[in-house]
Q: What sequence folds into this?
């Protein structure tokens, strides 16, 4: 809600540069899904006295707006005007309103959740606020209403922060709010209360004197009753103004009567509250928690369903339980928890799970129907008219999840699974990634103590990196360190840094990385398991799916990649500049899938993988090199591995060759990290082969100014070739270093496109 930004489904920003075009789109989005009459659009865009050509320009802007979208029907003509249609979750303004509504509903009972949601809502605003709205009088009147809603949200956030005892932290924010809107007595009252609770009674009283003078000078009036009453209570040192942990929010400044969230319902049986305990040192995930609370707490025509998925050990269950505890006040009729155990030795069938839920809702064991369908129907009946949250952990498939769905609005279903395809129709998928490095360090602090981490921050960083920022691995590592309080952190970092023994370190009693990874890998078909093992031996960074086709020796293996992604064993990392989706294998999974192989067999298979990938890089780099402008090419040294045969080339999908033909430079940019890794590996054993691959990148490096990188590569090749006695390769590397120096000095001719030719100094 700053400058207009429209993004496509694949996260590309649509280019809209004409100011009036941006203004029109901003107005239509401000009134999303509602027709805006033509005369109203003219008034909002140009104000009174629009230009004579306004109608024609408006038609042009509307036509251009339609061409922006893949679906032109998004901008529809109605009898009452024009409406831009957006879907739920597509508009930041809708997100803001929804977050504020749910946050303010939670304010009285759960200020922590209210704070998370309101901070997330206010975080959507950017400077300059509503930057593309035209500065017409009619538009300013429209914007004032929205800005008032923002001020109310800020006020509610302050009440939540005060209820949480954060009065010290919010004083600067309140000063800024009061300075920005000096006639807003509510902001001054909140500032006075925060100062008083911070032990600054004199500052609170001085603030009252200041605002009283300001109101007298500006408006000729005294402060209102809210400020006067608070002033008297501060003078009297009213005991009810002091902060008490767990108090309910009273927007008058004192404590509300009764405990927060007290349940006063009558009923013959208590509501079920089956959630496992929340983790006391739960770390991070604030945005994900707020999103789950928003999605599951939203009112609508259908019951909300959310699936949390992610790789093993990423903390899906912990997040689901944490968010569910934040939602207890939204579901006063009960919170049910069922462990489906899809990846355990004893998975629970849907029939058994339904019986468990029905008994929890008060159905006698003898009254539970026999058939699965009847049990699902009775569950929907029992949930009708009630507000119950069901948390189903470790779901197996979509059919299982569908049977647990509530039938009517009011209740909600929160699922976790290692399978993306478990989400039933209409569910929202929340993918979970590893923690950030900062969150990982904070989690380690909370387990072993801040002092140990602060004393050896670099060692702590190495520990969290070895754990791949996975909460499960961090938890196990922290348990080991906590059990050995005298261990230096750098000693443990050296132990866990050993890739061969890392999984052994990350095992403690019945908790460990191996136990979480084993069921996910066992659930794969043999072809997918083989692909995963070969990828692990490849030791790539991120990669495109054609790598899997090369490793399997099949030209059509994209389905295998899809299977691994669906099982959360490959992580999508975006789309590269050629338009190819890219993936990454989690590091601990890489160690696991190769750990159960015989040492000799693993070494042999790893060598085969490296050779196949090397062949593929050579084939593709040669094709890309032909598409980059170049001149003279030095002779290729003889001390090198032979050219690859056609077997590997035949498995490379045709779309890859097409993309190289269309933009060879883009392919080099996408694969530069992997090419660099292969060249570095080959340098140590076959510098001639490394030179052949580096040779095919040199034109691209020179053309794009990557001379420092080229220099490092050729310097290393030269050193390794000299050490191994490969004189021809060493001479070739020195010649290429001379080309680098010449290019840096500007002695090389400008590259020109040619079918033949090469590159080098124009001497």
A:
């Amino acid at each position: 809600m700053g400058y207009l930004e429209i993004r496509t489904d694949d996260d590309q920003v649509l280019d809209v540069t004409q100011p009036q075009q941006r203004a029109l789109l901003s107005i239509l989005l401000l009134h999303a899904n509602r027709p805006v009459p033509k005369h109203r659009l003219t008034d909002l865009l140009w104000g009174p006295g629009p230009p004579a050509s306004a109608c024609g320009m408006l038609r042009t802007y509307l036509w251009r707006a339609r061409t922006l979208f893949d679906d032109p029907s998004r901008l529809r003509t109605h009898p009452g005007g024009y409406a831009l249609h957006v879907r739920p979750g597509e508009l930041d303004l809708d997100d803001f309103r929804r977050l504020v509504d749910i946050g303010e509903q939670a304010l009285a009972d759960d200020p922590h959740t209210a704070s998370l949601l309101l901070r997330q809502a206010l975080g959507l605003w950017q400077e300059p606020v509503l930057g593309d709205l035209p500065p017409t009088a009619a538009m300013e009147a429209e914007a004032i209403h929205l800005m008032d809603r923002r001020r109310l949200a800020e006020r509610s956030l302050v009440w939540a922060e005060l209820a949480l005892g954060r009065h010290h932290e919010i004083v600067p924010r309140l000063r800024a709010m009061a300075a920005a809107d000096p006639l807003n007595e509510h902001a001054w009252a909140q500032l006075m209360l925060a100062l008083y609770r911070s032990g600054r009674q004199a500052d609170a009283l001085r603030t009252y004197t200041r605002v009283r003078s300001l109101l007298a000078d500006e408006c000729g009036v005294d402060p209102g009753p809210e400020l006067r009453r608070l002033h008297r209570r501060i003078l009297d040192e009213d005991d009810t103004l002091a902060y008490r942990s767990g108090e309910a929010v009273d927007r008058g400044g004192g404590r509300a009567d009764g405990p927060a969230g007290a349940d006063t319902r009558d009923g013959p049986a208590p509501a079920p509250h089956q959630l496992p305990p929340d983790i006391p040192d739960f770390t991070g995930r604030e945005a994900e928690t707020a999103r789950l609370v928003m999605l599951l707490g939203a009112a609508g025509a259908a019951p909300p369903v959310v699936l949390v998925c992610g790789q093993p050990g990423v903390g899906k269950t912990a997040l689901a339980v944490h968010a569910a505890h934040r939602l207890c006040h939204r579901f006063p009729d009960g919170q049910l928890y069922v462990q489906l155990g899809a990846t355990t030795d004893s998975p629970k069938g849907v029939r058994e799970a339904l019986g468990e839920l029905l008994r929890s809702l008060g159905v006698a064991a003898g009254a539970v129907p026999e058939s699965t369908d009847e049990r699902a129907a009775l569950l929907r009946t029992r949930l009708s008219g009630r507000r119950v949250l069901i948390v189903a952990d470790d779901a197996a498939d979509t059919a299982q999840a569908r049977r647990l769905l509530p039938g009517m609005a009011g209740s909600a279903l929160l699922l976790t699974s290692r399978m993306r395809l478990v989400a039933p129709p209409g569910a929202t998928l929340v993918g979970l990634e590893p923690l950030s490095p900062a969150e990982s360090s904070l989690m380690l602090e909370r387990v072993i103590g801040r002092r140990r981490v602060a004393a050896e921050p670099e060692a702590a960083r190495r520990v969290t990196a070895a754990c791949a920022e996975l909460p499960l691995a961090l938890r196990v590592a922290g348990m080991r360190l906590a059990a050995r309080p005298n261990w230096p952190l750098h000693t443990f970092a050296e132990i866990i840094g050993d890739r061969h023994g890392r999984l052994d370190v990350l095992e403690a009693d019945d908790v460990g990385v191996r136990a979480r990874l084993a069921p996910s890998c066992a659930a794969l078909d043999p072809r997918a398991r083989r692909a995963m093992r070969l990828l692990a031996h490849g030791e790539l960074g991120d990669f495109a799916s054609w790598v899997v086709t090369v490793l399997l020796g099949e030209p059509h293996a994209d389905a295998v990649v899809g299977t691994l992604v669906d099982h959360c064993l490959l992580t999508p990392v975006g789309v590269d500049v050629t338009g190819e989706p890219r993936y990454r294998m989690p590091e601990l999974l890489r160690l696991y899938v190769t750990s159960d192989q015989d040492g000799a067999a693993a070494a042999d298979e790893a060598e085969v993988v490296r050779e196949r990938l090397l062949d593929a890089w050579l084939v593709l780099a040669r094709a890309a090199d032909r598409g980059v402008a170049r001149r003279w090419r030095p002779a290729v040294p003889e001390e090198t591995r032979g050219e690859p045969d056609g077997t590997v080339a035949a498995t490379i999908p045709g779309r890859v060759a097409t993309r190289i033909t269309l933009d060879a430079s883009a392919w080099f940019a996408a694969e530069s990290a992997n090419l660099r890794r292969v060249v570095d590996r080959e340098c140590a054993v076959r510098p001639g082969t490394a030179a052949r691959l580096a040779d095919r990148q040199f034109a691209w490096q020179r053309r794009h100014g990557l001379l420092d990188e080229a220099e490092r590569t050729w310097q290393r090749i030269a050193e390794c070739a000299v050490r191994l006695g490969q004189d021809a390769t060493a001479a070739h590397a020195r010649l290429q270093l001379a080309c680098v120096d010449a290019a840096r000095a500007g002695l090389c001719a400008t590259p020109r496109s040619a079918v033949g030719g090469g590159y080098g100094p124009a001497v």
